[in-house]
Fold:
Amino acid sequence: MNKVLVLGSAGYIGGSVCSRLLEGGNKVTGIDSLVNSKIDNTLYLEKKYPNNFRFIKADLVREIEKIILETKNEKFDVIIHFAALKSVEESQSNPELYWKNNVISTLNVLDLMSKKGIRKIIYSSSATVYGERVKSPILETQKFDSISCYGSTKIANELLLNDYANSGKIDALSLRYFNPGGVLENKIFKDYIDGPNIFPKLIKSSIASQSFKIFGTDYPTRDGTPERDYIHIKDLVSGHISGMNFISQFKGYESVNLGTGRSTSIHELIKAFENGNNIKLDVRHAQRRSGDIAVCYANVDKAKNILGWTAKCDVNDICRDLIDFYK
Structure:
């Protein structure tokens, strides 16, 4: 049993990890401001795991002392840090908000670690740190090259953790996610359809008769549409469990891709979604969006070699369970 402090515990990925940790018999304290998420899933976890799950509503930027005070009698083996604002578009129009929220919060987390004697942290990073001029499959040694304020804050936090780890104060693991989708078996995350990524848009197109837009069909790819690495939330969650096992014996700083190592084009994704759910979507074509790249998928050798982890699901698994979830 581990004692885990989960920051951003009410979100789609953070909440899914909390659920799996609790299923495994771990003790979890969740922190969330509820700015980007709803209380429903937290209430579910509190009811199902009354002895092993505790929730504190708090803002990491403005209420770090409250968190320190309310956890003064608790010892933690590891922190998993998901807390962040996450809209690329919003970050471009409001960079001050994103730098304050996403980076100052991490500085406060490092202060919390110092005061509470916590050495281990797993950070929720992103493939956005690689930018648009990268060649796939993407290695972790690729230089940082963000094209958005959101991506820049992810880079800044990785650099912070690396510097602190190099000083010997902490041990840190940054997990760089590619494109997550799907739901866990317990299906507690009912607000997933409101999320910003491509899968909620597919769901809305299928159950609300909305058209689905493909932005660009003239890319140098298999069928002219962009190719991405789509990872099932089940695999993303298991990657964090593997990361916890790794960091418990690790000293220093490490960054690891979490993806499938395979690319799927937008046309291929639509076909998998249609076939898996026996439906036909109203697909419309639109012009390319600024910043979209042709191909982006992970090299996953490092995850296999140091975490002992590989993705077990594919895009068909993601598509098959989504409509069934919403039915």
In short: The two ends are 36 Å apart (CA to CA). The longest strand covers residues 120-126. Residues 192-229+261-326 form a domain with the UDP-galactose 4-epimerase; domain 1 fold (CATH 3.90.25.10). DSSP finds eleven helices and 14 strands in the chain.
